[in-house]
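User: quick one, sequence for these tokens?
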């Protein structure tokens, strides 16, 4: 029998989609949306398309850089914790990092949420986190889409972000200048960021049967859930600082899925290799050691799946090493030298 409203007529709400709730929740977020803007925005959120006018007084020969990504199964940990305010930061910061490796300033962001049934406070926490993260990095939240699809997602949801940045054409960071003798500078991660959660969940919750509330001495007082949910670190401030300096920032790699092994070769010239030394990684978050030991994971696999404490890598000439480290630390990151560039065939090695 078809479910219907009280007067016998079928409605969208009776089918599981509450348009009025969506409208009400959006109204609650207006103050956050208003704070996540740039002067180039020509209209507030809510139109069919977001309007953004490039400031040609600022940009002389701009190149637009775009990227799209998702949070992945970290969302399942957020659901286990009933805590959703950090995943909005995850998706924004991940996307910002992805375009910053080419030197692009983030200018606007779009989000997509696919969900079985819209509910509060999940929606406000997720979208509010997105707006806060955009405001923190000076990026406009230009618009988004929330698709309520009963029967498609069940109690789960998916979160995707699309970002656009701009960089002057003659300032694009490509990696082509990386040569033997360059130094690899590591910017530390605070945890898994947004990669490796399928393996982490299998080890911690299926093999070992821990709870997200489990407190282990190895985690220095944090619960497993708290360690896993730490939001993805944004490195744009450090990238911008080096770009504005005299340092030759010749290559940048965001260490996401694939780890040091797969992400660094994306920017290496074909005649050099990058060599990283595990013993140089300073104070890696203890969650990595816990997962590796509990799952009996080989080092080569761990460094391919996880960032293992290195969230981003800068490549600079040896003579710029100390200045690069100083600028990164001034930007708030405990940066350290973690490797070197040698002659090779475009590969990455971890020793």
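Assistant:
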């Amino acid at each position: 029998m078809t479910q219907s409203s009280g007067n016998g007529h079928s409605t969208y709400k009776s089918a599981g989609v509450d348009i009025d709730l969506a409208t009400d929740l959006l109204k609650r977020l207006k103050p956050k949306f208003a704070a996540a803007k740039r002067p180039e925005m020509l209209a507030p959120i809510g139109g069919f398309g977001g309007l953004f006018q490039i400031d040609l007084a600022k940009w002389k020969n701009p190149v637009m850089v775009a990227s799209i990504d998702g949070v992945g199964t970290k969302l399942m940990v957020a659901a286990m914790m009933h805590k959703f305010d950090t995943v909005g930061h995850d998706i924004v910061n991940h996307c910002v990092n992805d375009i910053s490796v080419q030197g692009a300033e983030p200018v606007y962001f779009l989000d997509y949420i696919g969900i079985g049934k819209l509910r509060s406070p999940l929606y406000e926490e997720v979208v509010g986190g997105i707006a806060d993260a955009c405001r923190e990095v000076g990026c406009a939240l230009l618009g988004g889409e929330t698709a309520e699809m009963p029967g498609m997602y069940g109690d789960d949801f998916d979160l995707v972000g699309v970002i656009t940045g701009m960089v002057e054409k003659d300032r694009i960071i490509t990696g082509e200048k990386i040569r033997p003798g360059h130094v690899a500078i590591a910017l530390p991660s605070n945890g898994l960021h947004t990669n490796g959660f399928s393996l982490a969940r299998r080890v911690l919750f299926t093999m070992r049967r821990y709870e997200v509330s489990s407190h282990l001495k190895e985690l220095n007082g944090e619960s497993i859930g708290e360690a896993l949910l730490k939001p993805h670190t944004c490195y744009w401030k450090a990238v911008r600082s080096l770009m504005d300096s005299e340092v030759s920032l010749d290559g940048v790699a965001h260490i996401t899925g694939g780890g040091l092994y797969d992400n660094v070769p994306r920017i290496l010239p074909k005649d050099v290799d990058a060599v990283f030394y595990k013993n140089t990684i300073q104070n890696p978050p203890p969650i990595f050691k816990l997962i590796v030991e509990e799952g009996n994971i080989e080092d080569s696999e761990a460094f391919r799946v996880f960032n293992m404490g290195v969230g981003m890598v800068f490549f600079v000439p040896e003579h710029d090493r100390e200045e690069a480290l100083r600028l990164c630390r001034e930007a708030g990151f405990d940066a350290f030298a973690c490797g070197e560039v040698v002659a090779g065939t475009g590969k990455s090695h971890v020793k």
